[in-house]
């Protein structure tokens, strides 16, 4: 079941590539959740807690109204990938799915001038300057989200298995190359690659439940959740052993968890603080 993660860059014609690819391969096209495709100002706000879920496996308690959108975005991406037969487009899909061997990660790009021309035509903008501002706002939000919240550089070549320049390649050529990549042996779905994806989804679900229980100031912080074959290791800090046990219990009752190793450290605050 092919899974193709594709960047979403304004004016690059990645949408056309995704649609043609889906038609030829019989796949669905899905946009990553609100962090990926909202307007730039809203994207900045929603991206505020991305690092809590994806940054180096560390989750820190927050309660600023952005977590529900972030959780939906993350879980949505992993669930779509788990079902397969899909092209997922978004700002961070190539980062989120980089550890899943059978996912083909594709960046579709174009020079700035070419992108301005496309944006002007599609949005009926009055001049090149308006198109430039639109693209720069989108690129800035994209870059900030990946760098500040996910610790990733959108221009890192290792994030992508294939980079396509639509100024030099037709949509048909782009689709052909992606199909060849997805059909190669290296991107065959295996039992081991499915297990990695299942563990990633499990980690997100546990973090969601922990975040719902342990909001800021409730005595648990710096939690790390790592799953391997359904076995989960928890690390972090709690101000009381009861809270540490509760966190372990929440993880243990999450569907799909086989065992929990609770390594949350109990560190009591000094008296008088």
Question: Please, could you describe this protein's structure?
Answer:
With 273 residues, the protein is α/β, with parallel strands linked by helices. The protein has 2 domains: 3-187, P-loop containing nucleotide triphosphate hydrolases (Rossmann fold, 3-Layer(aba) Sandwich), CATH 3.40.50.300; 192-266, Histidine-containing Protein, Chain: A. It has 11 helices and 9 strands. The longest helix is centred in the middle third of the chain and has 23 residues, at 128-150. It is globular. The model is unreliable at 34-70 (pLDDT under 50).
Averaging pLDDT over every residue, what do you get? Answer: 84
Query: What is the CATH T-level topology of the largest domain?
Result: Rossmann fold
Described by strand count, sense and barrel closure, the largest sheet is: 5 strands, parallel
Order of helices and strands: EHEHHHEHEHEHHEHHEEHE
How many alpha or pi helices?
A: 11
What fraction, in percent, of the residue positions are helical?
40-55%
Question: What is the CATH superfamily classification of the largest domain?
Answer: P-loop containing nucleotide triphosphate hydrolases
Q: Write out the strand line-up for the largest beta sheet, numbering strands in chain order.
A: 2-4-1-5-6
Q: Gap between N and C termini, in Å?
A: 55 Å
Please tell me how large the radius of gyration is.
Answer: 20 Å
Tertiary shape: globular
């Amino acid at each position: 079941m092919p899974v193709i993660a594709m960047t979403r860059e304004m004016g690059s014609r990645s949408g056309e590539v995704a649609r043609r690819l889906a038609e030829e391969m019989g796949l669905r096209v899905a946009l990553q959740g609100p962090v990926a495709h909202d307007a730039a100002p809203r994207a900045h706000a929603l991206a505020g807690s991305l690092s809590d879920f994806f940054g180096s496996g560390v989750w820190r308690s927050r309660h600023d109204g952005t977590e529900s959108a972030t959780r939906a975005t993350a879980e949505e991406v992993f669930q779509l990938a788990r079902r397969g037969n899909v092209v997922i487009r978004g700002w961070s899909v190539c980062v989120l799915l980089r550890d899943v061997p059978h996912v083909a990660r594709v960046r579709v790009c174009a020079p700035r001038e070419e992108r301005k021309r496309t944006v002007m035509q599609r949005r009926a903008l009055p001049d090149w300057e308006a198109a430039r501002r639109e693209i720069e706002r989108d690129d800035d939000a994209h870059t900030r989200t990946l760098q500040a919240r996910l610790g990733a550089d959108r221009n890192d070549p290792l994030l992508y298995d294939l980079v396509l320049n639509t100024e030099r390649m037709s949509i048909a050529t782009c689709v052909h190359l992606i199909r060849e990549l997805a059909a190669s042996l290296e991107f065959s779905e295996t039992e081991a690659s499915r297990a990695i994806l299942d563990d990633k989804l499990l980690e997100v679900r546990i973090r969601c439940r922990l975040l719902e229980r342990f909001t800021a100031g409730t005595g648990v912080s710096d939690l790390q959740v790592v799953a391997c074959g359904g076995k989960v290791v928890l690390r972090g800090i709690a101000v009381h052993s009861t809270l540490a046990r509760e966190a372990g219990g929440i993880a243990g009752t999450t569907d799909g968890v086989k065992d929990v190793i609770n390594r949350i450290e109990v560190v009591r605050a000094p008296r008088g603080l």
